[in-house]
Amino acid sequence: GSENLRYGKKWRMVPMPIVKNSLTLKLETDLADQMDATEQSYIYCLEMKVRDYEIDSQGIVNNANYLHYLEHTRHEFCQEAGVSFRDMQSRGVDPVVSRIEIDYVTPLRLAEEFRSCLNLKRRGARFIFRQDIYNKEGRPVVRALVTIVALENGRLTRGEQLAEAFAPVLNDVD
Question: What does pTM read for this prediction?
């Protein structure tokens, strides 16, 4: 095992075995059932494919790349919804990520095709994207909640300009 110096003390990395008990299997089954049941409710989905430079030394997609997939999906959604980032910036509006919650369910591998889907809700000044990634077999890969807030001319706002642009697709407005 490798030894590292951390805070003046030696510690050793110990690989943890993946143990699947009845609870984790039930959670995976419930998650898969829930995803299958809600897949029809997305307002936008984008097909993508894993590229060679996104793979880490373990042969799977590096965890940070899933954030890129999610962001790319949001940008493509905005573009198709007629909300151009260039136009927003020219008006002084900047949507920025304020929080990301992500669950990694199963990894993607080299050249694997996948589908990235999203829904959008508004909660006060926050715009919450529920984003899920599925592999080609339809099994969940990633589940994420991405919270966006709007800055206008550098100041935090309630995001009325953003809400106006997304009005046709917003759900559960508070």
Answer: 0.75
